[in-house]
Design brief:
The chain is an all-alpha fold and 331 residues long. The protein has one domain: Orthogonal Bundle (MetI-like fold). The protein has 16 helices and 2 strands. A two-stranded antiparallel sheet has the order 1-2. α5 runs parallel beside α9 and α10 packs antiparallel against α11. The longest helix has 34 residues. The radius of gyration is 35 Å and the shape is flat. The N terminus is likely disordered. Belongs to the binding-protein-dependent transport system permease family. This is Carbohydrate ABC transporter membrane protein 1 (CUT1 family). It is a multi-pass membrane protein.
């Protein structure tokens, strides 16, 4: 006899819902595992590699700076060169210099000369670098050769040529101003006697000698600008000036900032050009900049050391200000 079949209408009991599977929480120690520290040798390795380069720098630059700083607090002159012990005078040298209005005039002239020359050098250098990217091969090579000759010529040879150009009797500059342009008052004009024209001549010479470095550096940076970006901007309707201003120059901005910083440092401590022009007959007291003024104090080593330290502080202040502006623009 078979077992009775269950009816299809039989209701089965509901199955309770299954609880969700939750992964066990990881222990807090495993989640916040402290980073593994590298061995001391691995951390000190990059610094140890810098030691061979730092030793000659410390010997060649560190010792003179320390010696200069120590001399600025002493009374050190010609007598001390022959064995007489130096007297410690503290801040007397700094007080003597900073209380002299003439020293502040030299500092103001030096900073103004530095900023004007750096700005002109950057403007002319960028313009020539852009020109080199637009001209043909023959014109570009000619310009590059001319810049290399101007850059590679020794400073004293360059100064001799410029002195002949600005000579009061036989100079080409005076002849051009007097004959073709009709400025008869410039026929016998002495450019280095008056301070204003002296600094004009010095600016021309300094800019002439500094422009090639800026041109070649900026030109190398402009060659790295992708052609695809320039073509896309041109297809969008940007003209040549807009492509240069909003595309090329922003892309080479790091190069421009570094080159500008170097120009500020170099133009602040310019010496040879000013000294040679002074030896040619210019009034030295009215045309001193920081470099030549420190050289004029060479018989008083303590005052010269104090003035050189002041110059170093000014250079660092301008450098820090420039770097802060550079970093602020990059943010």
């Amino acid at each position: 006899m078979s077992a009775p079949r269950t009816s299809s209408s039989t209701v089965l009991p509901p199955v309770p819902p299954r609880a969700p599977i939750v992964a066990p929480a990881a222990p807090e120690a495993a989640v916040r595992r402290p980073p593994r520290r590298r061995p001391i040798r691995a951390r000190l390795g990059p610094y140890l590699l810098l030691v061979p380069a730092l030793i000659p720098i410390a010997v060649g630059l560190g010792y003179p700076l320390v010696r200069q700083f120590v001399l600025s607090f002493q009374e050190y002159g010609l007598a001390q060169q022959f064995g007489q012990p130096a007297e410690w005078v503290g801040l007397r040298n700094y007080a003597e210099l900073l209380s002299d209005p003439y020293v502040w005039g030299v500092i103001a002239r030096s900073i103004a000369f530095c900023l004007v020359n750096a700005a002109l050098t950057m403007a002319v250098g960028i313009a020539l670098a852009v020109l080199m990217t637009r001209v043909g091969r023959a014109a570009r090579i000619t310009l590059q050769v001319g810049l290399l000759l101007a850059w590679g010529t020794p400073v004293l040879a360059t100064m001799t040529v410029w002195q002949w150009l600005f000579d009061s009797q036989y100079g080409v500059i005076n002849w051009l101003l007097a004959e073709p342009l009709g400025a008869e008052g410039m026929r016998q004009h002495s450019w280095i006697i008056e301070p204003a024209s002296f600094y004009f001549v010095a600016t021309v010479i300094v800019v002439w000698m500094s422009v090639p470095f800026v041109v070649f550096t900026v030109y190398a940076g402009l060659l790295q600008v992708p052609e695809e970006c320039m073509e896309a901007a041109q297809l969008d309707g940007a003209n040549a000036w807009q492509r240069l201003r909003y595309l090329s120059l922003p892309m080479v901005k790091p190069v421009l900032l570094v080159v500008g910083l170097l120009q500020v440092i170099w133009d602040l401590r310019v010496f040879t050009q000013i000294y040679v022009l002074q030896r040619a007959g210019a009034p030295t007291r009215e045309t001193h900049l920081l470099g030549t003024f420190i050289y004029s104090l060479s018989k008083e080593f303590s005052l010269a050391g104090a003035m050189a330290t002041i110059m170093l502080v000014i250079t660092l202040a301008l450098t820090v200000f420039y770097i802060r502006r550079m970093l602020r623009d990059d943010v």
